[in-house]
Amino acid sequence: MTEQCTADRSTPPSDTLPLTQLEIDRRVFELYDEYCHGGIDRREFLQRAGALTIGGVSALAMAQALLPRYAQAQTISFTDPRIKARYVTYPSPGGTSGTMRGYLVQPNAPGPFPAVLVIHENRGLNPYIEDVARRTATEGFLALAPDGLSPVGGYPGNDDDGRTLQAGLDQGKLRTDMVNSARFLKAHALSTGKLGVIGFCWGGSTTNFLAVTLGADLKAAVPFYGAAAETARVPDIKAPLLIQYAESDERVNALWPAYEAALKASGAQYEMHMYPGTQHGFHNNSTPRYNEAAAKLAWERTIAFFKTHLA
Length: 311
Fold this sequence. Notes:
The chain has 311 residues and is α/β, with parallel strands linked by helices. The protein has helices at residues 26-36, 42-51, 60-65, 70-73, 127-138, 159-167, 171-186, 202-214, 250-253, 256-266, 292-310, and strands at 53-54, 57-58, 83-91, 99-107, 113-119, 142-146, 191-200, 220-224, 241-248, 270-279. The chain folds into two domains: 21-67, no CATH class; 72-310, Alpha/Beta hydrolase fold, catalytic domain (Rossmann fold, 3-Layer(aba) Sandwich), CATH 3.40.50. The protein contains eleven helices and ten strands.
């Protein structure tokens, strides 16, 4: 097995002391959220943050602190003896290119295992999501993290280019690639056939989409701060949902009341947790948006949820 860790060119120099969430002004978080979701590019994000004055000082350092530090965020080593990991390719009819590539991680045991699809944000399969796949495997699950960018060369090694690449894809075909990834994992020889999905940001939205698309083929879904499923399709949801929200996430949270009403009306099984004092992306430990206590609690709930519904 060969593993390669690619550097993210947006990572600040190693001698830059990281700021904590409490040290970063709310306006900078709002700019970062706009940047992360494609509203502005990296240059404009840094320029606009630099134009802000906080306590008589430019907010540029706050903006730079929010850029990801993937090497520092790794929690499970590529060579951890509890797991076996490899990259796999598989068919994806109707997707971007007809073929997909993903990061498959299994517990270091014979199997089979309950399976969990791990869906990335809006920038491809970056090192944070690969780490989440490894974390999932250490808990006894077969994890697959598909790279939606694989048909166009794969995650390019930095989030800026990854975000641009993903935005340029046909979004319907990209979602088809995720549906095919879920079906590939469910049918895998190492899978028990019991499938769960977890996703973050765009991946959270796609987790909701898979819940309506896969119906009874999906046994558990955990969307982290993802846009709600289409209201008219909510009755198609058959899997229990564990919905995880950040408190300060106006764009995503505004969709919750209508989503909850539709879930109640359809009799769907769900629970929602909103974590106080958190920003969108609070589970991602590569930037100061990370909230350790909330991320730990959300992850514990996630694993317990999967163990309950995929056992």
